[in-house]
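Design review, sub-item: ligand-bound model
Attendees: FS, YL, KQ
YL presented the inputs for the PMT complex:
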Amino acid sequence: MLDGKRVLLIIAGGIAAYRSLELIRRLRERGCRVRCVLTRGGAQFVTPLSVAALSEEKVYQDLFSLTDESEMGHIRLSREADIIVVAPASADLIAKMANGHADDLASTALLATDKPVLIAPTMNVQMWAHPAVRRNIATLESWGVQRVGPGSGALACGETGSGRMAEPMEIVTAIETVLAQAMRPRPLAGRRALVTSGPTWEPIDPVRFIANRSSGKQGHAIASALQALGASVTLVSGPTNQPDPAGVAVVNIESAREMLEACLAALPVDVAVFAAAVADWRVDGASDQKIKKTGAPPALQMTENPDILKTIANAGANRPRLVVGFAAETESVEAHAQAKLARKGCDWILANDVSTGTGTFGGDANTLRLITHDGVDAWPTMTKVAAAARLADAIAASLPPTLKAAQ
Ligand code: PMT
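KQ shared the predicted structure:
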């Protein structure tokens, strides 16, 4: 699918820049036309000559070059591409993108583009974890910038952790995915969606907590599926091992009360899907210190957590147009789900059987029944990704198209 596609590859400063040369080769083998912008930092690691030789194109470096501007202005450079790929994406260039800088050719082309942008970040593990970088990444993702990596492992600086640029073939696959998405119809363009996912952790003391078996696979897949249809998605997630879905703004929380706060902060939205397995109860007055084993086991006093779905389904003027809940049941699945639909005030509820042996928690498949006020639609067993796509299609069909979707 890459044959004939035009990639604008921006190579920023980082030791991983040498792997961008392999990326150029892999893209050229697949029939891509690759034009490259080499930043000042990038040119410290790879030469314009090697980039030009591999891409078989002129290499662009200078925003103020008279010849470059007359042959191929920076606006044309970004508009004549099908996708802009920033690999490696340094912390500095990411910060420029997130803050709208235009003080060199790379940042200017990125600001001027109307095409999908994919970044492959690389940096030191501490830099990657720094709140400034986290904020910048979240900003870019909320604007629809897609990301591949970074991966974990030994870093060039000698430390170990997250910060390695994705492998060239991973970047090629990500380019294919982004371009495939760009060609799909986007009926939810202009719509805002909120999705909850994963478990909540309710502290007993600073060491121990109460949790459940949710892996976040279903909720994360729903966030991805809504994003793929063009929605601007906020995913509020409890602790999981799932990678952040590309193009989705992720808010990480631990407890039910934090999840409620993050959900309320994400309003207003057009649609909200509550796939998280929220703890119904928490320990009343969790201990500030580790509870010592000094005799009889502690008698934990429980108190009820806020019901996030119910709160948002009854949020008055702030209520999303469509509120979708889940019902995880181990017996009388449909009857209990019907009761929850009414009790919580949502529009749709997806009933699933989580009894022992079903493998619903943590597994890759789900067997759902979509219950609405009009009836019950029993879906066959399918992967959680397929179930998410089916739900996203149903959501898109139920909302009137926006002007943006019609474009
Ligand atoms: O994460 P996976 O491993 O992929 O598994 C998927 C799943 C089983 C977690 C998911 O498909 C699912 O069923 N999620 C809902 C789990 C749940 O807690 O269901 P419930 O019947 O207890 O809650 C009903 C609804 O109210 C849910 O939408 C839940 O998110 C919401 N709720 C519940 C309690 C609470 N305090 N606040 C809530 O918002």
